[in-house]
Amino acid sequence: MRTSFETPSYDALLVEQAAVQAEKFQGRTLTQYSQLIFPTQHLPKPRGSAVVDFVEPIIGKVDQVTLGGLLEGLSEVKNRQPIHWVDMGGGRALPMRQLGAKPNIKSKIAMTNVDLFNYNLNGLEPDELEYLESIAPGMTQPFTEPASIKDDVETVSLEIKADLITAVEVIQYLNNPIGALANWYNQLADNGIAFIATQHEWPDWVRFKQTNPDNDVSPIKLLLEELTRTSVNYAITNEADWPSGLRPVVEPDSFRIMALQKKPGTFMRVNMQAQEVWTNDYGYKVVTYCASAEASQIIIEETAASDNSLSGATINSL
After folding, report:
1. Residues 39, 240: contact at Cβ < 8 Å?
2. What does the DSSP 8-state code read for residue 312?
3. How many angstroms separate the CA atoms of 133 and 169, rounded?
4. Residues in a beta bridge with 261
5. Which of 190, 179, 153 is nearest to 303 (CA)?
6. Helix residue spans in the chain (DSSP H)
7. Domain spans, the chain
8. Whole-number Å distance between alpha carbons of 256 and 203
9. pLDDT exceeds 60 at position 41
10. Residues 262, 191: contact at Cβ < 8 Å?
11. Rounded CA gap, 240 and 247, in Å?
12. Is the dihedral angle over the CA atoms 149, 155, 157, 158 positive or is it negative?
């Protein structure tokens, strides 16, 4: 349904998202998160990708890249000090519970789930709980539950900045995905990294209201251009490398996975507003933005550097 967009109140957002999330799959495990972020890495013969290359400076060349391995690598980079992993729209937070079931993991990783709702394990059937226990014994116990922030992922402000942000599928359900991307960048500690991953190509659903059919400028294309202009490390991919070893060409409006790293002492600002929001046949939001005629649409600018950083973890430009 097409609507003239007005930013919903928090209470209105709760009502809308309660219906949306009732239809969403809330059961992704740590392995499934890894598969969405690092495609084919779970297979006997994993293939590379731009996102795999992106994390190599942190974890080195390994046979299999996983989210759990990356978290361990980030901990090493931070001289084994606890790192902060934040999952945006994490639902039941099963990946965090999986890790939380490992001995001594909470001395290495502080975990926070940001979601409008804290589902916990409420409503799961006994056989579902039994299955989770078979994956990681203890993960259904209270001690594995991460910290919870009940807030809008588009605008949440973290008291402790994140060393790692994951956003799996959630970008497709937001009223202001560009604003959310900017906010997630700003919630990272210096040199922190973020992964935005979905099962479907999502950038094509983020558009400008066009009056010129030959104009191919899009909000995501402008974002990528600004990341490049300001030397912010990022990678995008739609799939793993082909079996031949060749890397498929990725267009700015046709990728599923994005990784980016917070450039120390920078802040991302957005000068555009969502003008129209409607829901497509997949149940995902299609957002049309109204561009500002008086300013750059997306700006990454310098600000005061943070003391909360992953020093030494800079990823080389890709």
Report:
1. yes
2. T
3. 25
4. 193
5. 190
6. 10-22, 30-37, 50-59, 67-77, 94-100, 126-135, 177-186, 219-229
7. 7-263
8. 8
9. yes
10. yes
11. 8
12. positive
Tell me phi and psi for residue 147, to 5 degrees.
-65, 150
DSSP at 9? P
CB 314 within 8 A of CB 191: yes
Angstrom distance (rounded) from CA 248 to CA 123: 42
Most confident of 22-36, 88-102, 272-286: 88-102
Strands 83-88 and 188-197: unpaired
What value does the mean pLDDT take over residues 208-217?
A: 70
What average pLDDT does the segment 158-179 reach? 95
CA 96 to CA 67: how far, in whole Å? 11
The two counts, helices (H) then strands (E), for the chain are: 8, 13
Q: What's the rounded Cα separation, in Å, for the pair 97 and 125?
A: 17
Q: Enumerate residues 6+ apart whose C-beta is below 8 A from 248.
A: 238, 239, 241, 242
Residues in the chain: 318
- The CA–CA distances, whole Å, from 39 to 10, 66, 92, 154 equal 35, 10, 23, 26
The distance in angstroms from the start CA to the end CA of the chain is: 40
Fold of 7-263: Rossmann fold (3.40.50)
Q: What is the DSSP string of 247-287?
A: PPP--TTS-SEEEEEPPTTEEEEE-EEEEEEEE-TTS-EEE
Cα–Cα distance list, 260 to 33, 136, 224, 295 (Å): 17, 30, 10, 24
Q: What is the pTM of this model?
A: 0.89
Which distant-in-sequence residues (6+ apart) come within 8 Å of 196 by Cβ? Answer: 167, 171, 181, 184, 257, 258, 259
